[in-house]
Amino acid sequence: MTLEGTQLIGRETVLATGEAFHAIDPSTGETLQPAFPTGGQAEVERASELARAAFDSYRETGLEARARFLETIADKIEGIGDELIERAMAESGLPRARLESERGRTCGQLRLFAKVVRDGEWLDVRIDPALPERQPMPRVDLRQRHVALGPVAVFGASNFPLAFSVAGGDTASALAAGCPVVVKGHPAHPGTSELVGRAVQAAVAECQLPEGVFSLLQGAGNEIGQALVTNPSIKAVGFTGSRAGGTALARLAQNRPEPIPVYAEMSSINPVFLLPEALEARGEALAEGFVGSLNMGAGQFCTNPGLMIGIQGEALDAFLATAAKAVEASGTQTMLTPGIRDAYDRGVAALASSDKAREVARGQSSDAPNQCQTGLFVTKAKDFLADETLQAEVFGATSLVVSCADQDEVKRVAEHLEGQLTATLQMDDADVDFARDLLPTLERRAGRVMVNGWPTGVEVCHAMVHGGPYPATSDSRTTSVGSAAIHRFLRPVCYQNLPQALLPEALRDGNPHGVSRLVDGQREH
Amino acid sequence: MTLEGTQLIGRETVLATGEAFHAIDPSTGETLQPAFPTGGQAEVERASELARAAFDSYRETGLEARARFLETIADKIEGIGDELIERAMAESGLPRARLESERGRTCGQLRLFAKVVRDGEWLDVRIDPALPERQPMPRVDLRQRHVALGPVAVFGASNFPLAFSVAGGDTASALAAGCPVVVKGHPAHPGTSELVGRAVQAAVAECQLPEGVFSLLQGAGNEIGQALVTNPSIKAVGFTGSRAGGTALARLAQNRPEPIPVYAEMSSINPVFLLPEALEARGEALAEGFVGSLNMGAGQFCTNPGLMIGIQGEALDAFLATAAKAVEASGTQTMLTPGIRDAYDRGVAALASSDKAREVARGQSSDAPNQCQTGLFVTKAKDFLADETLQAEVFGATSLVVSCADQDEVKRVAEHLEGQLTATLQMDDADVDFARDLLPTLERRAGRVMVNGWPTGVEVCHAMVHGGPYPATSDSRTTSVGSAAIHRFLRPVCYQNLPQALLPEALRDGNPHGVSRLVDGQREH
Prior knowledge:
The structure is a homodimer. The two termini of chain A are about 45 Å apart.
């Protein structure tokens, strides 16, 4: 397939007229063809209007038809073949194995949402039948289902050019819910975006859906994003990216004449608590596991372990010594973009120049373009508690170890943390009382609490929560990974005394779709 | 019980030092004793801190203990006896039968939430067991439940001094979810609030719960409310009231260092569509039913039918003539407060002075204090479409009839409407095609769609949606009436590889609470 550098608006391909940008191969600094002229207000309006026009029809596609559409997208993405992997490698600097696995995850989650759609639990059907004889007042017939919110704007993320991008989790869950999607592609991987966008476009056509179900807008700068979030046809936003970006979008959405929900997954330093017995018994193994997790994907995961917390003493010193060796042995890795590399260097420099943090070790360096040099710093708990800037996420392979005087100080550090995607306990059996004591705080602070694992690696399944209190996300009531993500794009509607012919099929007598229902408070399957 | 005019902060009663205010009997204008000194920042901080301190303990109360607490509140409210009804009558001008029925509703919904808590579906337990043999990567053990958001600020509403006030739907659903509650009582009924607040306080003590589970703050002015919404211990807000008030609170909450969700139920004119065959066949009965609904509670319901839409012609003229007679025969009724009466008079005056609306009829007038004089106005669809101010809610017994040229214009009016709590179709069998054509628009615009009923009357049950797109509420994804309201105050947490001893009981092997679970995507009961 020849890349054209076009916007995909409904069934059309449109060459925009804004300033052109190019992808850059971060491993070489080389500019990649073709040029992508930036879209603007006109393209946003056209895509949003098509999405609005498609909404009433698309949201009422049957469960089977919608599931087939999601599966067709997955098939079409796989059908692109190696061209997709090669372009994504060139645009992201990520290795082949990682991108092949990410493609599997992307298609797997589209197929998971197909299953979820077919199952129909997401409709949350509730029926309270009429009670005409009830005293003192009869009860009318009341039936509830969930309907799609409306067209959704999805912002592709840089760090997962497939799984959190054009046909990633936000798009999959919004389409599953019955929402048309307008994607703003991430400018770091426009070619990858175009390839995937064409696959979705082809799936829309093959499934004979209204063309406005999907559009892909591309551009450098903020104009497209701002225009999308303020467009009256857009009814919700999915975003994965920086805290500043997500917070700005949330403000913009809240200040619309009709405010809309923004699901922004933003910032997390993913604290890991090294409990005393575990640290004593297996500090070296923990140090090696930690640095392995830290270096994964050049540290460019939302769940990168950016904060380690332990109690000062010989065991923590030994942990630090082993971790320092592992860090020093760490080779450089290519970061996603020059901008991300610059931000990483600034974050590391801020730690290095802080009088409250001390450098423990740096990884190997390299003169190759856009390399991430691993970093490890240490601070005392009293300094960490006194300086909010030490909680700032450094996106990349650098972590800060907080040395606490005692268990009480560990608790104070936990209580002091901002909202997180994850919180981890490294513990042995004898640490269980301490762990139990920390757990309520961690539940309040994080979306996922884990024991004896590392936060990198987010399973796509039913029980996953990839979310958490602000600033981890803008809305802690949900998840952006896993099947529960569909609920972000739904709202309940109640139907009172509608004749059978007017009722949505899922609510009719006899349960024609065979979905789970709550009838008069009793669950029926 | 002697009213003391105190704040109820945890187990204490505190006489505040702010400027005192009194309730007023709106039917006589008489000032009611005692004085209520307004609480301030100190009381907000104390109540919020107690709520924060109570949270970790209260949110982990067992299902049975929490259900019993809700039932105990209901028992204690009933235990107040006639004193509660008499004080509420004096403070609201509402008749005895209405308040007795409202007390029944209030206690009924506390008991409904007790059932919901016991049932445990709200926990949304999901378990994806470990798959150690999976290739290429094993799966870890992942389990999800929902936990309470944190302390909730609830703003009592003026128009339901029991059912949407101190122990109303917001409080009941927040307590059911495991959230401590700090209520800001509505200054129109401080005595009613104190009586109910003491009942809740007694229930907290009897159930041996931490005192911070409930506090009641009272005061005139906005200081308490603003201090509550910006207090860092408060994690969500429930509000029923004006559009200006709800929007201001939502902005305040969004601009906190840690933004929090606001569930504000605000403004709705509840359009009723008079479809041609129904209007032709039974226009007189519709007119009488309409004016009955319009006058209910002096029009002071969120679901008052403020907008009637029909196609011009003889049938609509006949409907208007009958409605005009019914309006003219309507006696006055006492409104809740002098402020609400003044706002009503201003709203009616704006319609009367608009060159786009024409007065059809006014009800009887009276020199008694704070009386609502029923009003009926008519406008042409083209004027309605051109003037946003004609969509402004007039809180009270006044409605606007929109006369449309044809079916297309009815659709344009429907599409032009802001978000609504309800939308109603008055229809006969021969109207079904027209109704089907309107339905997608109404689903997008309203939380509840009904046929051949009137919007006043909101059943407390499982299928109810008392919600809708902005400005009906600040968050269309939920309801403030009915059992689904519990979901507003919950967020998911995922537990990865936790040993059984650390797992919350609801997630342990063997399902000790016997709740519904989604295990590896399969529903188990």
